[in-house]
């Protein structure tokens, strides 16, 4: 994974994300989403994430820049994993570095909500009974 | 003209594995979707829920479609 | 540092905090506070944190339990460092593991605000010009 | 009675390094603070801003003070 990429087919390493702070920043916030063993009451044993990668990369970069500008935080970076994930694997990590904590919380929350609304990534859930389904999601606001 | 469609997520189950090369009359994203819904009635659950993209650009309803374009068909998104 | 302790005189290691999730939790949030190179316009070169340790330990444990109960999150854990810290050192880490993200953000924010209001920890800032001062803080609501 | 005081933070600068053993008349936290303010006028900036604790317990205004107690004097807190 290159430093400025937002999508990866490999396991997400948190240490490099956390290390990328500067001494100007007093607050850091790391959000991670992981594959849960249950969803809507059904036992899950894995996930598969796919994406329309060129647009997903661009949308993630835009969300990071918007978060930085709207909340005046020094850095917002998002990494989303694609491919097959097992229970406990990290699907998404969002790190925000900021001089003050209030902005860090707001920027991080903005970024995850925007990701879920605007980035062409698709989650397929696999259940322990062998069934699989794509989760319903949010319709992109274009070309309807 | 000839368009290469790339369905994502649950649309793969309806339209098949990408790419899907079709002869279409549509010249913009809106009419392309209308034509697809007509040809593939199984798309009915996704009425008003598919967006189109070309490369890294999301298409508006009146964005032009050109011969040879690869058009991504984007159902509701569920990242995170 | 013992697993259930909240105060430490050693560097805070993030990996053990992050690793302590379970597969029931889809969202994790890690807040860290670090020593900034400026505060209120003055260049800083270090901090010293002291605490009335018996009460600080108890108050931090109470805040964690309150965060878990009020926001229905699986785990909230806080670690605060004491002693001499240099620029970039982590002074506090708060980790929350939760089934859903909204509760994780709320619980984490609650925990850091409660820490700043209720825990007898005292920050002394050292400036590059050789000056030092205790930061003003929040008065504990008792025995006034 | 004899009380051992443990000032914290900026109170160390006013009262000196702990422990500070004093003969006091006070029998609860409120009167202890009043007596300290009278003896140490330099505490004036902390009027109404000091809390008392004994071990892991914060003391209310009327919490009793006993001979030999170690009482922590807690100025405004600034952790984080």
From TrEMBL, chains A, C:
EC category: transferase
Catalytic activity line of the entry: 2 [molybdopterin-synthase sulfur-carrier protein]-C-terminal-Gly-aminoethanethioate + cyclic pyranopterin phosphate + H2O = molybdopterin + 2 [molybdopterin-synthase sulfur-carrier protein]-C-terminal Gly-Gly + 2 H(+)
Keywords: Molybdenum cofactor biosynthesis
EC number: 2.8.1.12
GO biological process: Mo-molybdopterin cofactor biosynthetic process
InterPro entries per record: MoaE_sf (IPR036563), Mopterin_biosynth_MoaE (IPR003448)
Molecular function in Gene Ontology: molybdopterin synthase activity
Associated pathway: Cofactor biosynthesis; molybdopterin biosynthesis
SUPFAM superfamilies named in the record: Molybdopterin synthase subunit MoaE
Record-linked Pfam families: MoaE
Domain of life (superkingdom): Bacteria
Family to which the UniProt record says this protein belongs: Belongs to the MoaE family.
Subunit architecture: Heterotetramer of 2 MoaD subunits and 2 MoaE subunits. Also stable as homodimer. The enzyme changes between these two forms during catalysis.
Protein name per UniProt: Molybdopterin synthase catalytic subunit
Organism: Oceanococcus atlanticus
From TrEMBL, chains B, D:
Gene3D superfamilies linked: 3.10.20.30
InterPro entries, per database record: Beta-grasp_dom_sf, Mopterin_synth/thiamin_S_b, ThiS/MoaD-like
Pfam family, one: ThiS
Stated name of the protein: Molybdopterin converting factor, subunit 1
């Amino acid at each position: 994974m290159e430093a400025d990429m937002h999508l990866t087919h490999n396991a997400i390493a948190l240490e490099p994300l956390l290390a990328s702070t500067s001494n100007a920043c007093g607050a850091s916030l790391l959000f991670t989403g992981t594959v849960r063993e249950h969803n809507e009451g059904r036992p899950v044993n894995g996930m598969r994430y796919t994406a329309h990668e060129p647009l997903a990369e661009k949308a993630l970069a835009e969300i990071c820049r918007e978060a930085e500008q709207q909340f005046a935080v020094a850095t917002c970076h998002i990494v989303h994993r694609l491919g097959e994930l097992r229970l406990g694997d990290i699907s998404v990590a969002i790190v925000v570095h900021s001089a003050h904590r209030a902005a860090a919380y707001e920027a991080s929350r903005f970024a995850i909500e925007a990701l879920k609304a605007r980035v062409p990534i698709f989650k397929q859930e696999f259940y322990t009974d062998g069934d699989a389904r794509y989760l319903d999601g949010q319709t992109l606001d274009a070309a309807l | 003209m000839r368009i290469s469609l790339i369905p994502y997520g649950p649309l793969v189950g309806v339209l098949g594995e990408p790419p899907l090369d079709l002869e279409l009359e549509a010249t913009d994203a809106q009419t392309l979707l209308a034509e697809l819904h007509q040809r593939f009635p199984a798309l009915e659950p996704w009425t008003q829920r598919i967006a189109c993209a070309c490369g890294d650009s999301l298409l508006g309803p009146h964005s032009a479609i050109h011969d040879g374009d690869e058009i991504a068909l984007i159902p509701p998104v569920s990242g995170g």
